[in-house]
Amino acid sequence: MESLETLKRNMEIMMPYGSGSFYSAFFESSNTDSQSLSNNNEISNLLIDINNRYGMSLTAFQMDHIFQIFMTFSNIQDEIEPDRLTSFEYFLNEDDEFLIYRKSGLGLTNIIIHDEECIAFSFIGKNPGERELIFLDDDIFYEKLAYKFFAK
């Protein structure tokens, strides 16, 4: 059975883009400690930055999955489809969730890596009803996750 806090967080994640208190506060705040990627940056430099900024706060689980995701992004950029990789940002929030996210004209796409060994993908569309939340199991196909992340 899910805890009340988990249910509350899931409900908030599924709120339409811009209407949930978490997202409203997040986008209005200029105090977020985020970094972004443009096609000119090297992903390995971003991994070094993540380690320098958050290394002491991230679990081994989080670091492993961050590494796997970023290496997949690098593979897309270098070998598969370089134009597919668009700007994204990342940061560690106060709930110890490492967020990799990108805003587009359609909404907000997230990869959420929680310190309690939980990974989720979410899309919060700007239009009501355009929402998706998928909890990922142990057998993550990182390339599929990466393409889904950059799809919208």
Walk me through the structure:
It is a single chain. A hairpin with a 3-residue loop joins strand 3 and strand 4 (107-114). The N and C termini lie far apart (32 Å). This protein has helices at 4-13, 21-28, 43-54, 60-80, 142-151, and strands at 35-37, 88-92, 97-103, 107-114, 118-125, 131-136. The protein is of the alpha+beta class. Helix 3 runs antiparallel to helix 4 (60-80) and helix 4 (60-80) crosses helix 5 (142-151). The chain has one domain (34-151). It has five helices and six strands; from the N terminus they run H-H-E-H-H-E-E-E-E-E-H. Mean pLDDT is 78; it is low at 36-41. Helices cover 40% and strands 24% of the residues. Strands 1-2-3-4-5-6 form a six-stranded antiparallel β-sheet, with helices on one face.
